[in-house]
Amino acid sequence: MIVIGGSNSQDLARKVARKLKANYRDLVVRKFPDGELYLRLPPKVKGQRVVIVNTMHPNPNDALIELFLSWHTAKEMGAKKVSIVVPYMGYLRQDKRFHPGESLSNHLVASLLSPDFCLTLDPHLHRIHSLKEIFKTKAKHVTANDVLGDYIKKNMKGAIIVGPDGESFQWADHIAKRIGHHAIVLKKKRFSSRKVKIVVHSDVPLEGKTVVLVDDIISSGHTMLEPIKQFKKMGVKNIYCMCVHGVFAEGALKKIQKLGAKVLSTNSVNNPVAKIDVSSLIAEQLR
Ligand code: R5P
User: Fold this and answer.
1) Is the pTM of this model over 0.85?
2) Is 134 part of any domain?
């Protein structure tokens, strides 16, 4: 087996290769002066199992083209089986035509990613419930919930798990159960991609407590910023924000840290707080 790391995921891909005792190679990617991508795979993939790892942040459009060109090329070069691992799969949140004429990007992007096997981590499945609904070839997702739960159990004693919105229930509930509690799930109203309103309501007193906000993704950060402000007024002692995919668009990480919250994510996306390693989780699926 040969594991190939795309431009966004070389460290993670190297770790996955090490766990699988497989060969590792970087995907050679250059940008032409006009912005198009040049790609080169290792020359000897014929007859081999090829795994290409590339996450879709930053530069989701380039990352998508890297994935699309590389899996096709591996196939054309005679690889026995081509798998792609997309730790953070972008374009999934547009899963409904909210306004007439909008593109349903989730299934259109999935149609470009159809090697023999596609693996992703905690995809944004809200209005659709399985990747099977959008992928034509074999696609599977795994969750980092247990990895996050175990981290909290080990490092944040007595933490109260809070999901910032209804969609986060699937993460918050699972993680809370993993550490032996129930989660508090808040209600969110989204007005735009940068404006949300969240009402903090808790039957459990939060004053003096450690609260961990958990979600699949932190993007603009507003879903975290809103409850943090309210927790501070309520006298919460320690506030943590934890997510699988730390995208942190438009300076979100600094904005959250400025409010005094500590932030942690997995290494599905490279960022300064990606302390929780998911390479074992990925390697297990590829064995
Ligand atoms: C949406 O439902 C997701 O689970 C996240 O809550 C959301 O995408 C986070 O976005 P932002 O950080 O921009 O508020």
Assistant:
1) yes
2) yes
